[in-house]
Design goal:
It is built from 4 helices and 3 strands, in the order H-E-H-E-E-H-H. The protein has 137 residues and is α+β, with helices and mostly antiparallel strands. Bound molecules: copper (II) ion. Copper (II) ion binds next to helix 2.
Length: 137
C-alpha cells in the first residue's frame, strides 16, 4: 500500500513539474514575442555623399526581408529604418549596406565593395559634400 502511495505521489510531482516547466516556457516565449516589434523604428549612420548613394543605400536596406521603410538623408548621413524585428535585425541591414560599398559605424565595406561604387560616390577620399565633418579648410 505504501509503495503504491509513493508511486502515486511521485507521478503527481513529475506531472506538476512538467506543467510548471511548460508554463514557464510558454510565458518566456510570450515575453520574447511581445518584445519584438512589428514596426520597429531605428536610425543609424551610413557613409555616402549624393543622390546616387541615397538610392543605393535605400535599395540595399529595402532588399533585406523585413525592412518596410528606408530613408537616407544626404546632409545628415542618417538612415531611418522601419523593420519587423521578428524577421530581421540591425546587423543584417548593415551587412547588406556594406555589401554595396557604404560604411556604417560598426561595419565597414570591403575595399572591393567600396571600389564598386560610382567614382563620384567615393566618400572616403573627398569630404567636400559633407556638411558635418570638416577636417580643415
Ligand atoms: Cu553617391
Amino acid at each position: 500500500m505504501q509503495a503504491l502511495d509513493l508511486k502515486f505521489n511521485l507521478s503527481i510531482n513529475i506531472h506538476t513539474m512538467k506543467t510548471t516547466i511548460l508554463s514557464i516556457a510558454m510565458m518566456l516565449i510570450a515575453v520574447i514575442t511581445y518584445a519584438q516589434e512589428k514596426n520597429k523604428k531605428m536610425t543609424f549612420d551610413v557613409n555616402g555623399k549624393c543622390a546616387m548613394c541615397k538610392e543605393r543605400i535605400e535599395e540595399a536596406a529595402l532588399n533585406v526581408k523585413g525592412v518596410k521603410y528606408a530613408n537616407w538623408s544626404i546632409p545628415t548621413h542618417q538612415l531611418d529604418i522601419i523593420m519587423d524585428e521578428r524577421k530581421t535585425d540591425a546587423m543584417k541591414i548593415k551587412t547588406a549596406i556594406v555589401a554595396v560599398g557604404h560604411d556604417t559605424k560598426e561595419l565597414k565595406a570591403t575595399e572591393e565593395a567600396y571600389n564598386s561604387v560610382h567614382p563620384c560616390c567615393r566618400y572616403r577620399e573627398d569630404n567636400s559634400d559633407d556638411g558635418q565633418h570638416h577636417d580643415g579648410n
